[in-house]
Design goal:
Layout: H1 3-13, H2 18-25, H3 29-36, H4 44-53, H5 59-64
Helix pairs in contact: 2-4
GO molecular function, one term: DNA binding
Pfam families: HTH_3 (PF01381)
InterPro entries: Cro/C1-type_HTH, Lambda_DNA-bd_dom_sf
Length: about 70
């Protein structure tokens, strides 16, 4: 699964808007829109901040999704 698809799935499971997730992770709304739309792949640091904000237990698996970008 592509990072942006997994991010959206996890965010929606927690009923978070992009703005709320951005506040929790310290990432701007515009960057999150670009990540979730698949236009950009986040750095490991940004992905880790998102994993922490989303309270993901298996962070390593989440971070590995940034290594394999899928074509749009």
């Amino acid at each position: 699964m592509a990072f942006h698809h997994r991010l959206k799935e996890l965010r929606e499971q927690q009923n978070l808007t992009l703005r709320k997730l951005g506040e929790k992770a310290g990432i701007s709304y515009s960057i999150l829109v670009s990540i979730e739309s698949g236009r950009i792949i986040p750095s490991k640091d940004v992905a880790l901040a998102l994993a922490i904000a989303l309270r993901i237990d298996d962070r390593e698996s989440f971070l590995t999704l940034t290594d394999n970008p899928s074509p749009l």
